[in-house]
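Hi R.,

Here are the chain sequences for the assembly we discussed:
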Amino acid sequence: MTEPEPSNPPSADHGQLVKSRGSSAAWVWVFPLLALATTVWFFWSNWKSLGPEIEISFGSAPGMQPGKTVLVYRGVTSGVVTHVRLDDNLKSVVVTVRLKAFADGIARSETDFWIDQPVISLTQTSGLEALIQGNSIQARARGGEPQTRFNGRSTAPLDALESPALTIELQADSMPLIGRGTPVYHRGVVVGAVREKTLTKDGLPRIEVHFNKETAGLVLTHSRFWILPAASLNLGPGGASLDVAGLAALIQGGIAFDSFTPGGQSATDGTVFQLDSNETFARADGPILTIALDDARGLIAGTTRVCFLGQPIGLVESVNVNAATRSVEAVVRLESAFSDLARASALFTLVRPRISLEGVSGLDTIVTGAYLALEPGNATELASSFFGRSVSNEEWDKASANQAGIPIKLSAKNIPSISKGAPVFYRGLVAGSVLEKALDENARPVLRVVVHREYANALRENSRFWRVPASAVSLGPGVVKVETQGIEALLQGGVAFDTFNIPAAPAPSASVFELFDNEALAAATSGPIRITFETGRGLLAGRSELRYLGVPVGLVESLSTANGKVEVTARLRAGYEFLQKSGSSFAIVEPKISLKGITGIETMISGVYIECLPGSGSETSSSFVGVKTSDPVAAGLQGFEIRVSAPATTILAGAKVVYRDLSVGQVTAKTLSEDGLSVILTVLIDPKYRRLIHDNSRFWDASAIEASIGFLKLKLHSQTLIDPNGRIAFANPPKPGNLAPQGHVFHLNPASQRRLQSR
Amino acid sequence: MKNLTRVRLAQALVASGLVLYIPANVIPVMTMTVAGDVEPLTVLGGVQELYDSGLWPVAGIVFLASIVVPFLKLLSLSWMLLLHGTSTLRPHRAAAHRIIHQIGTWSMIDIFLLAVLAAVGQLGILASVQAEPGALFFSAVLLCTLFAAEVYEPKLIWETEETSAAK
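And here is the predicted structure of the full complex:
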């Protein structure tokens, strides 16, 4: 403090009221200024954020609310609807939208506007947010000139963000299951989608397909499009497989495309492609070939393949029938990689499933359907028009081989169930085939048959032919046997032949044979024998057998009636001619059931048959009188014959003759005596009991019920229940007379005289 | 603070309040989103909304509390400050000041309610309430009137040119 402070002189001023005018409080006006500035800034910034106002007209504008509904671009609110009105002629709704300033780029001529509504369907769910927030207007900008009036779209585009880079059109005759949103696949990857499905002016369906810019380059000018099946069932030698392309494809269908030939240029907007019905169709994009066929059974347009070495290389696109030339023209396209196979020398053969003589060919075509086999041949120049055949080479060869066999004819009364191509069997081997069925000059059906050369030795002049049924059921006691001659015979019937007698000379060509109904008939080769029966009940022509000791030896050929009797014509098999000797007996054996027993039971199943017993005569006869019996033994019963006469009796033929209750013979016939006064019973006595018959033997009727009343005892004897034919008993007196001669007539005593006579 | 400064401050605050009163009533104070329905509401719009939904007593209260009262406050404060230094209607002015002061206790209730609503009413997409810039302006108006009434002490009503100069 070296320097003294200047001392303030005492103020003379005692104060003067100084008005501090305002200057001290001027800062307070900052507040109103600040308020004003804030307000102005706020309104100005608000105004600045507003973009241009645009007008969009829609066909209908559901859910539009001024001040609330917003315009959304890429998910960002870019404007607000300020006004909604109808246009002057009530045709559309004009929605005024105030865009935000940052979104004024939306107001361009190419921008699409649409109303986003909730869509919930099987294939698509979109606009869910609209459920909660209400509908909004969506925009998709594509550039263009600034504009303020727009026409809104009625539907949302498939891709809300990007506009398509490539739009092409597909046409087809029909395209079911394909509609808006159907995906377009390229090698399994979705690269595009169907945007619109409309009809062209000529009424054909047409779809518009969109691709975005990543995938647009895949579509080339020669790309082929086809409809992807939602589900396909493949049957093949490898089994069956069911392909389902997925739930989406089931509902929406699908379209696939690919380019099968290299090169090509990218397609441009609006290019029209053909939509093929399947991939095979699409692959066959080679030149069009026409094939004339005289028989196009099994040929299906769009399905039948053209195969080369068994591999499909093309497709029959259409089949045109030419009524004038009676031919069918198949339009075929090969895959372009194989188009050089369509040479002038190419041979097209329609291969169909065929079940024929020596096997089955083209069995794969049962599953896959017929196909056209292509043999390119050696020519170098290409052609576009061909003649096709409908059988394979193999079968042609076989057909010509048939021509080379021994042709013969078979005639029969009728020829059911044998068709052209039916096999001819020789002892189970296929020895030939039936060429055709025809009528000969006598209007009898004739089968023209060819027997292969290898079997020429088997075919003799005395060979016999018979029809082979598709299947035969043989019933025997205890055995049921079903025979089938194989699938060919089952389908086509068949003919068999064999030689039963000593083979004669080989048959020459064009010989005529008779066709028998079955093997048994054919085997019965003897001359006809005629047997007369009282009744032919149970006999069947062509069925009933002749048996010897139970073994079938022949067959009844026909039945006819003559003079109140039945005349049976029968034939015997080779080797049994001895049965034709005179004295042979023939008896119809039929089933008989009685209390005593059952006879001929086998005939209940096998049918009535004729039992044969060879006679002792030396000469051959062809006419016999038959008997009817239930006992096969009785038919051949031989013995000592006597006669018993009675005024009347209930005893019938077949009644037993007993000696001391031992059966020694049988009544074989019951006839009236010549004078008509008595009944004559012819009795056959077993030869070994011949010595019992004396001229004084007594016969009585033993069939009646006998009753004897003894001491406190009642006794009933009855044999009639046992033997319905009755029975005859005889006894000899203590002193027998001479042996009775053959044909001796005895008197039949009534039963009541038994005791007396027996004494 | 000098009395004169107080008067000037009060005057400036009332002026600010008057300026801010316009945006406070024009700009939405809140946005109600009910079931996706987005609705920006101004103060008057809120009253309208309440009235339309049949809650007219509530509408009346809100109308009084949010529109009439702030407006009357601004008006009477302006009147008071305009007549400052004169002797006209001094007792009436003092009474008015008393009323304003007492009402001022409740004046922020709207903002308080809005704050509570905005905090509680957040039910996601179903319903939500959001405060908008209008609420800021509105509260600014109320703050202006509050502070103006506070700064302009009642005794200043009785002050004359002389008394103020005497200080």
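Chain A has six domains: 47-151, 166-281, 284-397, 409-518, 524-635, 640-758. Chain A is about 10% helix and 40% strand.

Let me know if anything looks off.

Best,
T.
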